[in-house]
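Dear colleagues,

As part of the handover before I leave the project, I'm documenting each prediction I ran so the next person doesn't have to rerun anything. This entry is a single chain, and its sequence is reproduced below.
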Amino acid sequence: MPEPLEAQYYREYVTYSEVFRKKPTPTDFEEKLRGTGLHSIMAGLSFINSVLYMKGTLRAQLELVNDTFTPDIKARIAQLPRLEVRALYSAAQILFVMKTAVLQSPDRNDDRSDAMFGGTMNDVLLMANDLIDADLVDAVERVKDPDELAKMLLPHSVRSTMINAADAHNTTMPRASIMFSQVGKRADVLERAGAVAFDIETRFKALTGLSLEDYFALGWMLIYWFALGVRQPEKYPDNRSLNPATFFSQTRLDPATGASLLARLTHDHVSLGEAIRKRLSAGRLFSYDVVPFMERPLYQIRGDVLVPTSLAFLASRLSTGVYWILFDAMDSKERDGWSAYYGHILEAYVRDTIIRSFPAARRSDRRVLPEAVYRVGKREMRTSDVVLLYPDAAIFFEVTATRVRMEATRLMDDPGAIEDDLEKIVLKKTKQLSDRIDHFQKGHYSLGGSNATQVNKILPVVVTGEPIPLWTTTAKAVRHELSKRGLLQQAGVGPLRIISVDEVEMLEALVAQGVDPLDVLRNHAGDSDLRDVSLRNYMQRHYKVPPNATLQAEYVRVGNNGAQLLFGTHLGPPTQEEIATRAYDLFEARDRQHGHDVDDWLRAERELFLGSSRDFD
């Protein structure tokens, strides 16, 4: 039996022990950090993590190595095998070092030379790669049975994937804006949600002082501010950090409102240390417990300097922040209702995405059918959330907003917890799919007038609100349960596909190029090498997936709102008149002191030039 893919996964780091032929201990690691200033550590690691997020982990490796590692270490690393698919840097590693540094390093700048500080950081980062999974490596080396190995690696593959993987901000931000600002207030969604529905806009503004429009605009500009520092570091060196007073100096909002939003997102040394120690006392997996960074992804080095500990977490928090700000202000009963309401919003969003992909005027042989009522005896039932109908085939979509749990699953070595989550997220929805397909095949309802004799090929799909890690172990576990329970075993029913909402958006973008989603899903299911990895990985391997036009348009719209809100300008290069006006304002602010015309012009240009639209992705 071949070794499961996850058996290779934990060995993908380049480690200190490989480079120096000496295995580091936790004491070695902590001792290095005790002699290194925390301010410098957090600033440097913040930028590395931002580069990883903006440019992609593997693509960013060479650039980061050339910028941060000494010639001697680079020469040593160059001798190691399989470097093209291995990582010196990862989000999990960076956050592990940050957490340990907060607990161990002195809260000051590091005044040593760049060479000395850089050498220490080289050592610390490589040591972290040895230590982050040390217990797992030792355990795996003792296991010979493939099934036992797969079960052991299941918790690791879940937490490692979910910490190191990250959705792009130019999809999460516009998706959240559409869902909360538009879909959530639609009459059909409110009617379906019934008693659990409420006015999201009014409740959110009462809690934050911000409209949804202004919240997303501010969030967009926060991400874009730091993104410019990554994409154009020579032009925007100051964008590695953020000064709240300067950032909000031109906004038309009350600056206190902007400061309040930042406070929700920011830890300082004291609060972050307390949060880490509290969670450490609860027995969580220290190297992977990143909850404090997820809850507040900005770090205050000092009063006028904020940096993102994780730009990925900042983008996620700003995108889903509407949900969590409302959730945190509710009691337990209301939280259950809000979660149910969010499920209705997500279901409607997925249905809208599929409908947009197949307008009736484009193809007469494909139709999108929303959920409908039918009866089995006296019982009133509903069809699948969405059905994509072809002349002789159909794709049945069931949507779920249930997530992989943070505390019980992602941060514990407990395969049973993962099985429980798969039960709630996948298998529960698969039971619904199997029942709906069974009822269709037995003639309890038709699809747009077509019966089971005509539609004799069915592909079942579960759509999740957030990605769940799909590897050989999770896929094998799901297939085993489906077979044991007799689910989706009917004639003509293809293998279950589990995809996330972002992969539905990618399918929509491919459809615009003439690619048929049924072909994509079938080909993925039939690929012996890639059928057990995510649809995203499969599509990126076999297709050139363009940006989703709907999300791209919303992203630019929100960005323009942000540019106007914060800087009184617009996306794209400023006009000469705009630069001249701003330069004159700076001249006026200096009490009309002459001799700084060029400086004023350059500063005005720098403030107003927010990048052209092609820089948004």
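Strands lie at 266-267, 298-302, 305-308, 367-370, 373-376, 379-382, 386-389, 393-400, 457-464, 497-500. The longest strand covers residues 393-400.

All the best with the project,
I.
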